[in-house]
Design a protein that fits this description.
The protein is 30% helix and 22% strand. The protein is of the alpha/beta class. Helix 14 packs across helix 17. It is globular, with a radius of gyration of 26 Å.
Length: 711
């Protein structure tokens, strides 16, 4: 693998490799050296060809400032290499050593309350600070130079889950760097004041040295434009921090591949430099980690949706960490995958675009903040069912890898995503509405449950590969996107525009013409006459409603008139209740009305419209999705958008995708339930996992998997 920086990012970008990376993160520093050889032999038995190591070992690589010692990892790499296992090294910048933070405490991150972070945890240093960036470059350069000619080091991971523990900084260094960022962007303070609305609340500045960081609730909220630019700044500095390392690694050895393992996706703009600097991205998959989200579709759906979202940022990916046992930190514990479920999750990852996979972790730590984060081997060094299951997965992956590598995941219904500015625009002034992703996930889940090939796609990707493209109320809209959507529709595609799309400009100001703006009005044939918020379908009130850190909404308010003020509309012969938002639409004469509001003062007005554009059509939805509307909209596009499920009449709990290339078609079918399920109307082909012929019907045991070659 080589530098992929010239390859355009796309939901369909494959990884340029002929090797499926299969293995585990490994921590030789956590175990006696006398055990290393046995570990290597057991890894070979599992079919592992790669390990990842070093992400938290800066204190060992550089025990004192400017003094380097790589001997422990040299020996560990040699032991693995002698067994035929290659190594991916990580830049260890997520955990700077104590000598650094003691001598240079100014590099510590500062939170919104002015509290300086402390040594003893991780990601406590400020990646914005110029001095910390310099130390990060030094350790990266020292490691790269030491391993440049080691043939057993094949690639690198930058840092570890950047911004996962904390993504913001309010340090003096952050303020100074933010001021410089603003000056480079706006050039004149007058331009900045205009962009941020400085005449509101006397928030104008006389010079860039006066610019402050947008502290939340100090005492109330800052301008959305100010907040927007701060998060753009955070994303830019995160990209620059990583770029420092990538440039050093590429200059040292052009044959190394470089990637990053994504965590919570906080303040990372993948489509603006971060992902294009990399050969591919990685996503750490822990389906059981977010119990509070299981209600939106279960752990299997969570995994599928997270990986589809990842693929929308940059294309095919690897999974550097995939849950193998239960995970735990001091304040939480996850459920444990049942027998067969670890295997099922592995094939679900491959089904959704993984071209490499590593089970987390080889063995659990006996000390530290994650002593009950289990791995393939247990604390007592006895290999049990997870070890045996890993062996099975390894044998099967090596059996099918030649078929899967180079293929990409089929998407018939694309959902607009991977647009950092729109995610932040929503957060800067949400009005209690769901985020674009929270809205989009309802349509994605409805497709998942029906077996429809759906995924997340940026408007600048190859839209001609889709049949339907849905935009989930992107507040900021670019005119060139309207041109691309019109071309897509004229060629026969179906475009669906969600409420509030295009209602703010890139400065986060409300536009001065009727929504959805000039180019989208020309495309959709509608203007928005009025809009307003509604109580969510499962809530009683508007006031007191706020998004949680995970995007759901909570309310502490008592029931109000809002709980009785339900607005309904009739769509294809069914009356549905709107949630979150209503819009009154004023359609032009060439627009068909598909749904009308059916009660209160909205009665009779257009709620959903359709305009014929060339061989295709453009819909405008004047409300936000609910589960019910997402299901009915999916029914509509199946009937009118030339969309068919990959497997008709899909039973509940079946994860199905299609990976394809140049006529090759691989149908992945995973049973995410613990009981046997039978599927009918399955396409004919050969199951690559069993070599059995499949022709019309397929029975899968609990957590069973099939990969059907339909070519």
């Amino acid at each position: 693998m080589n530098d992929n920086s010239e390859r355009k990012l796309s939901a369909w970008r494959p990884i340029d490799t002929n090797t499926f990376l299969f293995g585990v993160p490994h921590y030789p520093e956590h175990i006696e050296e006398s055990w290393w050889q046995q570990d290597a032999e057991r890894m070979v038995a599992c079919g592992f060809n790669t390990v990842r190591m070093g992400e938290f070992a800066w204190h060992l690589f550089e025990p004192c400032e400017g003094v380097y010692d790589f001997s422990l990892f040299d020996r560990a790499i040699d032991v693995l290499a002698n067994a035929g296992i290659k190594t991916i090294l990580c830049t260890p910048t997520a955990t700077p050593p104590r000598w650094l933070t003691a001598k240079y405490p100014e590099v510590l991150r500062v939170d919104k309350n002015g509290r300086q972070m402390s040594h003893g945890s991780r990601q406590h240093a400020d990646t914005i600070h110029p001095l910390f960036r310099e130390f990060s470059r030094r350790i990266t350069r020292a490691m790269a130079e030491h391993y440049r000619d080691n043939p057993n080091v094949i690639g690198w991971q930058t840092d570890n889950e950047l911004n996962t523990s904390m993504s913001e900084s309010y340090s003096d260094a952050a303020r100074a760097e933010f001021q410089s960022f603003c000056e480079r962007k706006y050039r004149s303070i007058e331009s900045l004041n205009a962009a941020w609305g400085g005449d509101f609340w006397a928030t104008a500045y006389r010079g860039f040295d006066q610019v402050v960081l947008p502290l939340p609730n100090a005492p109330v909220h800052c301008s959305p434009g100010h907040v927007q630019d701060y998060h753009r700044f955070l994303a830019h500095t995160t990209m620059q921090f990583q770029r420092d390392q990538v440039e050093i690694l590429r200059q040292t050895n052009a044959d190394w591949f470089v990637f990053h393992n994504m965590g919570k996706l906080e303040n990372v703009d993948f489509r603006n430099g971060f992902a294009s600097d990399l050969d591919f991205v990685g996503y750490d998959v822990y389906p059981f980690l977010h119990e509070e989200k299981a209600r939106i579709g279960g752990h299997a759906y969570m995994q599928a949706s997270q990986l589809d979202l990842c693929r929308g940022y940059a294309g095919n990916f690897i999974v550097p960490e995939q849950q193998s046992g239960f995970g735990s930190q001091v304040d939480f514990s996850t459920l444990t995958p049942e027998p067969g479920e670890m295997r099922r999750m592995a094939f679900s990852s491959i089904a959704h675009g993984a071209d490499g996979l590593m089970f987390f972790r080889w063995r659990p730590a006996h000390f530290g903040a994650e002593i009950y984060w289990m791995g393939i081997i247990d604390h007592d060094n006895i290999p049990r069912r997870r070890f045996e299951e890993a062996k099975q997965v390894g044998a099967e992956i090596h059996q099918v890898a030649e078929h899967t590598l180079g293929t990409t995941v089929r998407i018939d219904i694309g959902i607009a995503s991977a647009e950092f500015d729109n995610d932040i625009a929503h957060k800067s002034y949400p009005i209690g509405f769901p985020s674009p992703h929270d809205d989009a996930i309802l349509l994605h889940r409805a497709c998942f449950q029906r077996g429809i090939a759906a995924g997340f796609v940026h408007p600048e990707d190859a839209l001609e590969r889709l049949k339907v493209f849905y935009v989930p109320h992107w507040l900021m809209w670019k005119d060139e996107w309207s041109e691309r959507l019109e071309q897509f529709a004229r060629a026969g595609g179906t475009v669906i525009i969600g409420a509030r799309t295009g209602s703010r400009n890139t400065d986060n100001h409300v536009i001065r013409v009727p929504a959805p703006g000039e180019t989208l009005t020309a495309l959709t044939g509608v203007q928005v006459e009025e809009f307003g918020p509604l109580a969510a379908p499962d809530q009683e009130a508007l006031m007191g409603r706020a998004p949680t850190p995970h995007g759901e909404f909570t309310t502490t308010a008592r029931p109000t008139e809002a709980s009785q003020r339900r607005y309904r509309f009739e769509f294809k012969g069914q009356e549905l209740t709107a949630g979150h938002c209503y819009e009154i639409l004023d359609p032009s004469s060439d627009v068909d009305v598909l749904a009308r509001w059916s009660n209160r003062f909205l009665e009779g007005r257009a709620a959903i419209t359709r305009r014929q554009v060339g061989a295709g059509q453009v819909l405008y939805v004047g409300t936000y999705l609910t589960d019910e509307l997402a299901e009915r909209l999916t029914d509509w596009v199946m009937a009118n958008g030339k969309v068919e499920p990959l497997i008709p009449d899909l039973p509940q709990g079946i994860d199905v995708t299609l990976r394809e290339k140049d006529g090759q078609k691989l149908l992945f079918v995973m049973n995410t339930e613990c009981f046997e399920q039978r599927l009918d109307s399955v396409a004919a082909g050969v199951d690559l996992l069993t070599d059995n012929r499949v022709d019309g019907s397929l029975t899968l045991e609990g957590y069973g998997c099939a990969i059907i070659d339909m070519s």
